[in-house]
Write a structure and sequence with these properties.
Layout: H1 2-25, H2 27-55, E1 66-69, E2 75-77, E3 87-89, E4 94-101, E5 104-108, E6 114-118, E7 123-126, E8 143-148, H3 165-180, E9 184-186, E10 193-195, E11 204-207, H4 223-233, E12 237-244, E13 257-260, H5 267-282, E14 296-298, E15 300-302, E16 307-308, H6 311-314, E17 320-327, H7 331-337, H8 340-359, E18 371-372
Parallel strand pairs: 8-11, 8-12, 12-17, 13-14, 15-18
Antiparallel strand pairs: 1-4, 1-7, 2-3, 4-5, 5-6, 9-10, 13-17, 15-16
């Protein structure tokens, strides 16, 4: 406004001068001055508007919850906003965040530590808004988090000939991601999955440990970190891939188990559908299967806390399960777990179970009531966990 007032005053002075000049140069000269003044006012006003347009900036909305992907070269990590970095976390690692201080993001490291990173040092992915209620989900908008169980010194079970569970879990998880991120036709009678567009690809699949990260994906993760990734991503489903040890029975068929989050609605239905699909995928493998006394969809409750025993399920905000596909401790099943055919069959079973859960109201079978669990499941302590650092 001050600029426009100045322009108008200038124009007024010119008009007065023009009127004075009218006695000398006549009516035509005055009209010429009026036209000049109008041109000056118009041109200056346009210039002011133009300047206002070019200098106005709009700040992008703050992303308060989401994922932060560590780019090539790593990312400095801080104990608090500002100050000196504690270390540089390895490229390819996924971090969840659910708070910020200006341009600083509070993240959880792979060893469950709350730390801070600069927003400008990571690639941000805002939290998904959700794809709908289970049974009516728009698959093309769905976000899935797949957790390959164990990693690094937490190797999980080990087979008689030395196959580590952490290796098999990652290989199966990669195949599952490939299935979820492409469209397919599924014959729901036979279970056959083929190229097509009947079942669309989901919007996003995040692996808690990924070959793009350190050591080709073989690094340790805390249980709280795994759940935090799923919560920060706004995942519609969290599936943790595992294989079992120490069978206690000789079932007629596969001894697969799927543990569900007792504290999250619909987790039991997800577990039952995945278990049903595991049995279908594995029935073509002719071996003497091993298992436990309780098969199917299960849940374990810690009597001291009256909630889920397994930390990854206890902390999840969405339907979540732990899949125990085969018994890696048994020679015949370990041998199967080494093969591409069995790993693919395992991944396809979990894929079909997830798709049925998200897009239909179908129920599976063998949903067991929660069990009070007082034993030790053998989880490796996170006290010696080391966050992977950029070389």
């Amino acid at each position: 406004m001050p600029v426009r007032i100045a322009v108008l005053l200038t124009a007024l002075l010119l008009v007065i001068s023009a009127c004075a000049a009218e006695t000398v140069v006549g009516q035509g000269a005055a009209r010429g001055v009026d036209a000049t003044v109008a041109a000056i006012v118009t041109t200056t006003t346009v210039a002011v508007v133009s300047a206002s347009t070019t200098t106005t900036t709009v700040e992008p909305p703050e992303v308060r919850i989401g994922l932060a992907l560590v780019p090539a070269g790593g990312t400095p990590v801080f104990a608090q906003p500002g100050g000196d970095p504690e270390y540089t976390i390895h490229e390819g690692i996924l971090l969840g965040f659910d708070d910020r201080d200006g341009r600083w993001l509070e993240v959880m490291t792979t060893c469950n530590e709350p730390m801070w990173v600069r927003e400008s040092d990571v690639d941000l992915v805002p939290r998904s808004r959700g794809a709908g209620s289970p049974g009516t989900v728009d698959l093309s908008k769905a976000t899935i988090v797949v957790d390959p169980g164990h990693g690094d010194r937490d190797w999980g079970g080990v087979g008689p000939s030395g196959l580590a569970e952490k290796e098999a879990n990652l290989a199966i998880s990669l195949r599952l991601r490939t299935l979820l991120t492409a469209s397919h036709d599924v014959n729901w009678e036979s279970g056959l999955i083929a190229p097509g567009d009947t079942v669309p690809a989901v919007d996003a699949v995040w692996l808690t440990r990924d070959p793009d990260g350190p050591n080709q994906g073989d690094y340790e993760l805390g249980l709280a970190y795994r759940s935090h990734i799923a919560n920060s991503a706004g995942a519609d489903v969290l599936v943790s891939i595992h294989n079992n040890t120490v069978p206690t029975a000789d079932p007629v068929g596969p001894g697969s188990e799927v543990f569900y989050a007792w504290s999250v609605d619909d987790s039991d239905r997800l577990a039952s559908l995945i278990h049903q699909e595991l049995l279908r995928s594995f029935e073509s493998f002719d071996i003497d299967w091993k298992g436990g006394l309780i098969l199917g969809a299960r849940s374990r409750i810690d009597p001291e806390t009256d909630t889920d025993y397994y930390g990854i399920l206890r902390r999840a905000d969405m339907p979540a399960v732990i899949v125990e596909g085969a018994y890696i401790s048994e020679p015949a099943e370990e041998e199967l777990l080494r093969t591409d055919a069995f790993r693919q069959a395992y991944a396809e079973a979990v894929y079909r179970g997830i798709i049925r859960f998200l897009s239909t109201a179908e129920e599976g079978e063998r949903i067991n009531d929660p069990e009070v669990f007082t034993s030790d499941a053998g989880t490796v302590s996170s006290a010696a966990c080391q966050v992977p650092r950029q070389p």
